[in-house]
Design brief:
The chain is α/β, with parallel strands linked by helices. The chain is 40% helix and 16% strand. It has 15 helices and 14 strands. Helix 1 (26-41) packs across helix 15 and helix 8 crosses helix 13.
Length: 386
């Protein structure tokens, strides 16, 4: 790429604002955190896509979105700021437009994007890519939603100049699909969350293993169900509880029902949704260890959050997770429940082994804050075209 972002005006998308809350997850969590840090640390200008007006709106005043991200305001379509046309702004000087959200969520997003003056030498269009799961593994979504996401991603490959990915695994996927002459880079997501609550509910006095993530087929909770049946049969009343933190999502209703209704697993598995950051930090703090058996990830925030708080995370060996998990011996094939069972049993039976791994995490693991992540994203934007 011959064009450079140096000395250009950067326009940063405020994305997924309607999903920002005290309990954000997934892409919504990333966009909320990155926006908050970028506002505090850069001279960028900002825009958003108004879903009702179906238009890109540029802003001088982003205070409404700052309040949303801070949890001091609740999203209301009627309170979205009026702003002014982004298109008119891009006709002046050199500009960089950074898309940060989920373009498939908005009606006619790509049609309005094509109407912006982005196909000129004076504008560089960059997008953050979280994953290509809808393209590579469409069976992990409903057909309607998966096809919508895949079509949106394919369109981004046509119109964007540079792709900023959240893992080396996602970058490798992107490089398969992006046209010749375009470029891709990587930055690392943040993983710091609030301080834990001083006291946890009495129901968690029993030792427990923690699994964080939406209950959906891709996250592979069905493996945990079968593993916990084996653990319950072996340990009986002494079986560690499995606390699953996440809403029930795509194609996973059956396994969620099995977990909490099977007489063998019912006393030993609990599903919690809408857990805020402080409670989540407390769960990380007091668990034996965490487990993340996902079939495929763009990154894997629950694994990195666990490690950032000094907790061992047993993960699958798929996609981006080997980039996060520093212990290859604590990974397993996501289709091999027997291997997962052996790993979990080895930690449950050997508390000193867990302590040893925790010591190594404290000594060697470098925590990435969300301010670090925003800094890395800014550096990646600045480096485009150099």
């Amino acid at each position: 790429m011959e064009r450079s972002t140096e000395d250009a005006q950067v326009w940063f998308e405020i994305a997924l604002f309607e999903q920002w809350s005290a309990r954000p997850h997934g892409i919504g969590r990333a966009t909320q955190k990155l926006f908050s840090e970028a506002v505090a640390a850069t001279s960028y200008r900002y825009f958003y896509y108004h879903p009702a007006r179906e238009a890109f709106i540029a802003l001088d005043d982003v205070s409404y979105f700052v309040k949303l991200a801070a949890g001091t305001a609740i999203y209301s379509p009627d309170e979205l700021p009026v702003g002014f046309s982004l298109s008119a702004q891009l006709g002046e000087g050199r500009n960089v437009v950074v898309l940060t959200g989920a373009s498939w969520d908005y009606p006619n997003f790509h049609a309005r994007l094509d109407e912006l003056p982005i196909h000129t030498s004076a504008v560089i269009l960059i997008t953050v890519i979280y994953d290509l799961i809808a393209i590579h593994h469409p069976h992990f979504f409903t057909e309607e939603f998966g096809s919508k996401v895949a079509a949106s991603l394919r369109r981004l490959f046509v119109v964007c100049d540079h792709f900023i990915c959240i893992s080396q695994s996602t970058k490798a996927d992107v490089e398969v699909w992006m046209p010749a002459g375009k470029t891709a880079g990587v930055f690392r997501l943040g993983e710091n969350i609030h301080s834990p609550l001083a006291v946890l509910p009495e129901s968690l006095e029993k030792r427990f293993v923690l699994c964080v993530g939406t209950v959906e087929v891709r996250k592979n909770h069905q493996l945990l169900y079968w593993v916990w049946r084996k653990l319950a049969a072996r340990y009986g009343e002494n079986c560690p509880k499995l606390i699953v933190v996440g809403r029930v999502g795509w194609l996973a209703g059956d396994v969620a029902e099995l977990m909490v209704r099977d007489p063998l697993t019912k006393p030993h598995i609990e599903i919690r949704s809408d857990v805020d950051d402080e409670e989540l930090a407390g769960l990380y703090r007091d668990c034996l260890f965490t487990v993340y058996p996902s079939h495929y990830e763009g990154y894997g925030l629950p694994a990195s959050e666990s490690l950032s708080l000094g907790k061992v995370c047993v993960t699958s060996n798929s996609s981006s997770l080997p980039e996060i998990n520093p212990f290859p011996e604590l990974m397993f094939d996501p289709e091999d429940s027997s291997a997962a069972l052996l790993l979990l049993e080895s930690l449950i039976d050997n508390p000193m082994q867990i302590r040893s791994y925790e010591d190594r995490i404290r000594t060697n693991y470098k925590v990435q804050s969300w301010s670090d992540s925003a800094r890395d994203l800014v550096l990646e934007i600045k480096g485009v075209g150099r």
